[in-house]
Write a structure and sequence with these properties.
By secondary structure, the protein is mostly beta strands. It is about 0% helix and about 55% strand. It contains no helices and eleven strands. Strands 2, 4, 5, 6, 9, 10 and 11 form a seven-stranded mixed beta sheet that branches. Strands 1-3-8-7 form a four-stranded antiparallel beta sheet, with no helix packed on it. Strand 9 and strand 10 form a beta hairpin. It is globular, with a radius of gyration of 13 Å. It starts with a strand and ends with a strand. The relative contact order is 0.33.
Length: about 120
């Protein structure tokens, strides 16, 4: 019932920036938590950042001070601004939405950071 469409991934050199977007459509709860996960080759998927409907955020320690998660006023789009990118940020980034009853995932967008 909810679809998440991600965009903004790409190839960037170390020190550069990218902005990921995730647009949600369908029946979207106003109380949902949205977030970004990432999975690098050979590694476990990890939570990068999340944001509640009231804009409470959390981040994995490795991206604090470099990444910023935000959502628009309608709370149907979530963004991840990624600055000072490092090669270790290379991964497939997945958007998700949790409304307390259901969990929805995007299909992922590739972020590659070259040295």
């Amino acid at each position: 019932q909810v679809q998440l469409v991600e965009s903004g991934g790409g190839l960037v050199q170390a020190g550069g920036s990218l902005r990921l977007s995730c647009a949600a459509s369908g029946s979207i709860s106003r109380f949902s938590v949205m977030g970004w996960y990432r999975q690098a080759p050979g590694k476990q998927r990890e939570l990068v950042a999340s944001i509640t409907s009231r804009a409470i955020t959390n981040y994995v320690a490795s991206v604090k001070g470099r990444f910023t998660i935000s959502r628009d006023n309608a709370e149907n789009t979530v963004y991840l601004q990624m600055n000072i990118l490092k090669p270790e940020d290379t991964a497939v980034y997945f958007c998700n939405l949790n409304d307390g009853r259901n969990l929805y995932w995007g299909q992922g967008t590739q972020v590659t950071v070259s040295s």
